[in-house]
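Example 4.3 (complexes with small molecules)
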Amino acid sequence: MKYPIPILNLINSYMKLPGIGRKTAIRLAFHTLKMKDQDVTEFANALMDFKKNLCKCNVCGRINEKQVCDICLDSSRDMSIICVVENDQDLIAMENMEQYNGHYHVLNGVISPMNGIGPNDINLKSLLERAHDKRIKEIILATNSSPEGEGTASFIKNILKNTDIKVTRIAQGISFGSDIEYADEVTLARALQGRIEL
Ligand SMILES: [Zn+2]
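Answer. The structure with zinc ion bound is encoded below.
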């Protein structure tokens, strides 16, 4: 039996979310049907605003509500260090640790030849532009310890080798394949403190 078109559309939309298969999508769609009109409107508005009110910071690439994000504008932070992370979730994990007071650069991905993602497909060019700033003394590579994260770190190290910037890599306290995003704060702090120069 076919579902009415509006329900089918919602099922198809839910199925675009990660980890949601057809069965769960159907359950969510029928749950949505039972929700109060006001709650559905709020849910829909949150989804609309989510995209409309967010943009990437022109400096670090972080997703936020302004052209230049609060971290990049914060003059109390250490201008001489940039921590390079794969994505916004990793940046948040670093911030939650409350032990890092430098700046960031969000790659929005990693180099992954297997998936056809090259250096030009991630936010790398602007990192090189930032590296011309003489105030930058250290770049910490905090990509994950996956093969792609390691490969991306080596690639960045290579393109920075003719600069005076010290390039460091966070210590491998984080076990292979586990994400920085999910590392506990103590492990992450240790990985940061134990960073090694490449
Ligand atoms: Zn920024």
